[in-house]
Design goal:
224 residues, mainly beta, Elongation Factor Tu (Ef-tu), domain 3, four-stranded antiparallel β-sheet, 3 helices, 12 strands, 8% helix, 38% strand, globular
């Protein structure tokens, strides 16, 4: 497994041996039981469904209760997320153990990450409601003085006679935030297996105590 479900706890800073401070986001990652394993299209590809947290059975959906019961879990997970797992074909001598997916009921913990790993975090951004173009898209607005009355207006939204319409994709005022977003290139600074905490260099989308999905990412990241 190269992914886990977590909850954003907030931001702080950690110090290295030389006293340099690093801003980090603290994520409570796991433990996540494997709820379901399904085969995906393609060789040695599986969709692994993980659970996080717990909820009373009477407050859960019937499919959630059924998934937990079939997996042999004592509690019904409050959050379910699916991760695609592909068998590692390197080296060539692949054993059955190295390519087998995790079994239902098995726990995935934060120990799958190591300091220095690059990850990508998916969450729901903070909702900002209906906003104008200055805040939503960073427009500069109009002149500040000399009789101007359109300080934070978008200005012209398109040509006139031809094509006589607003082009698709034009940046306009509208609903801002509350959307799915993936932040890539983040680096793991510290892993606390005893408290199931992950310290990540940089900012993570979403409010405090928001649910996030953490996945490993190959290559170099933004905070190398």
């Amino acid at each position: 497994m190269d992914g886990i479900i977590g909850r954003k706890l907030g931001m702080t800073r950690v110090f290295d041996d030389e006293g340099r401070a690093t801003p980090v986001t603290v994520i409570e990652a796991g433990p996540c039981p494997v709820v379901q394993v399904r085969e995906r299209q393609g060789p040695q590809r599986w969709a692994v469904q993980l659970g996080f947290g717990a909820v009373k059975p009477k407050r859960a959906l019937k499919p959630q209760v059924g998934h937990a019961k079939r997996a042999g879990l004592d509690a019904v997970p409050a959050v379910l997320r699916e991760f695609v797992v592909t068998a590692n074909e390197e080296p060539a001598e692949v054993t059955a153990v190295s390519v087998a997916p995790p079994a239902p009921g098995q726990l995935v913990t934060v120990s799958i990450f190591q300091p220095g790993d690059f990850i990508k975090v998916t969450g729901t951004t903070k909702g900002r409601g209906f906003q104008g173009v200055v805040k939503r898209h960073g427009f500069g607005g109009g002149p500040a003085t000399h009789g101007n009355t359109r300080h934070r207006k978008p200005g012209s939204v398109g040509p006139g006679t031809d094509p006589s319409r607003v082009i698709k994709g034009k940046r306009m005022p509208g609903h801002m935030g509350a959307a799915r977003h993936t932040e890539v290139g983040l680096r793991v600074v510290r892993v606390d297996s005893e408290r199931n905490l992950l310290f990540v260099r940089g900012a993570v989308p979403g409010p405090m105590r928001g649910i996030v999905a953490v996945r490993k990412q190959g290559g170099r990241g933004r905070y190398a």
